[in-house]
Design goal:
heterodimer, A: 226 residues, mainly alpha, B: 488 residues, two-stranded antiparallel ribbon, 2 strands
Chain lengths: 226, 488
């Protein structure tokens, strides 16, 4: 069953979950506390798992149920746990220096969403998909991508940056569930696993960074220039 | 036969890496890694010949052996061999023998991921292989654990992971475009997408290509996404710098070329090729400007890598038989030559105890043999005649004229002249300026382990500058034909 011919109720559930996930990224933009970022990320992962389940049931992709389970396990529990451990161990628990105040970041985030909507609408109209859930999925995917990059550029704590990266990947994952639910499962599982390895590497690096460079803020990483 | 060779290429470094961890002795790890690199090279050498008449598929067609993959694996195996040889001499001078087994295990792991990435047939699996190369090499970049190394490692993993996630988005979009033709589930291989490319909607295909270009371009070090490259290449131990520059960048370039193959098959010659040409010129320009004003010796080499990746991107961007064959030839030459340059730079850094070029003086007088080899390498890498890089750059320029990119060829020529002057001016200072003041302490000797790979890298560069067999030209031309595009 394709995304063109979904019952309105199902399409609404998809949209609701996708928009809720997008809203959670705004929690990240609006806060200075690393813990809030982490909770937002974990909640978002659960929403994505919920989306996988709905897509799996209504569009008849039973393998998505397994993906949902793995998403909850990896993104919803294991990654947040690993990151929470890193946060507990390090000295800094919030963004000390912000370039862009949380309020201004929210406005910038909104601009990102509008931009993403324009692109998604354009692509959707080329494919004659305007009015379907595909446009919303595309919007949310691109918007989360842009907001992730916004996080990477305006937040400097190592943990904020790791979470910014994870938001980038969450956006892709979310979009992929709706746009390409038939994508081979092996691929998604390996990408999930890859993410776990990546976060483990980040964890090790954060510790080295703190001990060798004496900081976990990228603002202080200014030795190598030119 | 082919399958066995590919399996051996993957298994040999894996076993060597594991064994060096298990045995845990520095000398054993050194020689194990060296042996693995010799075996990997021996397996990679016949691959280009065996790939003729292909492509061949293995392992439920997850593995692909075609001309492009075989060629890049050969380049990688060459650099792996040379840098393993160099590492034996170089890593001993660090005086941290107890960390060597771990280093060689990571080094073999890095070689493994870089060797297999170009052979991946599934676009998603290729993406994962490229991501794995990043994760393994981050710890090699930060191996020396100084504040600078950690900064470089952090910037490397951050920028490259963020960049490569764009490539994943491009891959998802590409898959989505394919679902309109093939239905919701199909296998995401290069060949499948090239077959259905004419039916894909350009409104999705072009954004997907651009995202993949920026994503893999980050890993290749195309400007303006190159910012991680000078840091990572200058702070990692010299053998790792050589691997990053000579092997890893090519492995990521494969992704761009294969995506270009898909847009070519779709008949979209304009936008994708123009964008690649512009990225190439930008890299060449940024490389040239930073080379002129550079102070660190390894950063000089790193910016030279940005410059040469720009040249290779220009070749693929021009397209056609000359552009692509020239770019592939340039890949091999750059791999050999940049290894030589990093070996020289690493040895000089160790021996003079400084990373600044201002501290390296009268190199040729102190080290007649290593000095002569390094200087020859410097002349070669700036694209001066006699050496192979001159030939490959001329072929790429010819390809540009053949495809009506004359403006880009003129810009390329001007920038290459700037690089020539800037690069060799630094070498003039390091070789022929007097050694003033308190810094005039005699430098430490350079081990023969470090000089031998420099000589080994220079021989093919000279040889290929004079003599280039027709069979290899026709091999490169067949890859160009497979990539397709204008004029082929």
């Amino acid at each position: 069953m394709s995304i063109h011919a979904l019952p309105p109720l199902v399409a609404s559930i998809f949209s609701l979950l996708a928009i809720a996930a997008l809203l959670l990224t705004f929690v990240m933009l609006g806060s200075r506390w690393l813990n809030h970022y982490l909770y937002a990320f974990a909640a978002e992962s659960w929403l994505i798992a919920g989306l996988s389940v709905t897509v799996g049931i209504y569009a008849h992709y039973p393998e998505l149920l397994l993906i949902a389970l793995l998403t909850i396990l990896f993104r919803g529990l294991l990654l947040p746990y690993l990151i929470a451990r890193i946060i507990r161990r390090q000295a800094v628990s919030y963004e000390v220096h912000v370039i862009l105040q949380p309020s201004s970041s929210l406005v910038a985030g909104a601009a990102c969403v509008v931009f993403a909507l324009v692109i998604a609408y354009h692509i959707g109209s080329q494919l004659e998909l305007v009015g379907t859930v595909a446009v919303i999925a595309l919007t949310v995917m691109l918007a989360m991508k842009l907001i992730g990059f916004l996080m990477l550029s305006i937040r400097h704590e190592a943990i904020s940056q790791v979470l910014g990266l994870l938001i980038l990947e969450n956006g892709i994952f979310l979009g992929a569930q709706v746009l390409v639910p038939g994508m081979p499962m092996l691929l998604e599982i390996v990408i999930l696993f890859d993410l776990l390895v990546a976060v483990a590497c980040f964890g090790v690096l954060v510790r080295y960074l703190a001990s060798a460079a004496g900081t976990t803020s990228s603002l202080d990483l200014n030795r190598l220039v030119g | 036969m082919r399958g066995d060779l590919l399996l051996a290429i993957a298994l040999v470094p894996a076993i060597a890496g594991l064994l060096s961890l298990v045995i845990g002795r520095p000398r054993a790890a050194e020689y194990l890694n060296l042996l693995a690199s010799v075996l990997a090279l021996a397996c990679a050498l016949p691959l280009p010949f065996l790939s003729a008449g292909g492509p061949y598929y293995f392992l439920k067609s997850y593995i692909l052996l075609d001309g492009l993959g075989a060629w890049v694996v050969l380049c990688t195996a060459l650099v792996y061999f040379l840098s393993s040889l160099f590492a034996v001499g170089y890593m001993r001078t660090l005086g941290e023998d107890e960390k060597l087994p771990g280093f060689y295990a990571l080094f073999a792991g890095f070689a493994l991921t870089t060797l297999i990435a170009p052979l991946m047939n599934n676009i998603g699996v290729y993406w994962i292989a490229i991501e794995l190369t990043t994760l393994v090499s981050t710890f090699l970049v930060g191996f020396e654990r100084t504040a600078e190394c950690m900064e470089a490692a952090w910037k490397y993993i951050m920028i490259v992971s963020a960049g490569i996630s764009l490539a994943l988005l491009g891959t998802v979009l590409l898959y989505w475009a394919g679902t309109f033709v093939l239905g919701p589930t199909y296998s995401l291989t290069w060949a499948t997408l090239a077959t259905i490319a004419p039916k894909l909607n350009p409104a999705v295909l072009i954004p997907a290509f651009l995202l993949a270009l920026v994503g893999y371009g980050t890993k290749v070090g195309l400007a303006p996404m190159h910012t991680w490259l000078p840091d990572a290449h200058s702070e990692s131990p010299a053998p790792v710098s050589a691997m990053l520059s000579g092997a890893l960048l090519n492995a990521a370039m494969v992704g761009i070329v294969r995506f270009l193959g898909i847009t070519n098959a779709a008949g979209l010659n304009g936008v994708p090729h123009n964008v690649v040409v512009i990225f190439g010129l930008a890299s060449l320009g940024i490389g040239a400007l930073f080379i002129v004003r550079q102070e660190g010796v390894k950063r000089l080499m790193a910016y030279s890598s940005v410059e040469h990746m720009g040249v290779i991107a220009l070749g693929f961007g021009f397209g056609g038989p000359f552009g692509i064959a020239g770019a592939l030839f340039h890949m091999l030459n750059h791999s050999l030559n940049k290894s030589l340059m990093f070996f020289g730079a690493g040895s000089a850094m160790r021996s003079y105890g400084t990373r600044e070029m201002a501290g390296i003086r009268e190199f040729g007088r102190y080290f007649p043999r290593a000095g002569a080899l390094w200087l020859a390498g410097a002349v070669s890498i700036t694209g001066a005649p006699v050496f192979a890089l001159f030939l490959s750059e001329i072929v790429i320029m010819h390809g540009g004229f053949a495809q009506a990119y004359a403006w880009a060829v003129y810009a390329m020529a001007v920038l290459l002249v700037i690089v020539f002057i800037g690069f060799l001016n630094h070498f003039r200072a390091m070789y022929y300026e007097e050694d003033y003041g308190a810094a005039a302490i005699a430098p430490k000797p350079i081990s023969a382990w470090c000089v031998a790979p420099m000589a080994l890298a220079l021989i093919p560069l000279v040889l290929f500058g004079f003599w280039w067999p027709n069979s290899i030209w026709s091999f490169l031309a067949s890859i160009a034909h497979a990539v397709g595009g204008p004029g082929s």
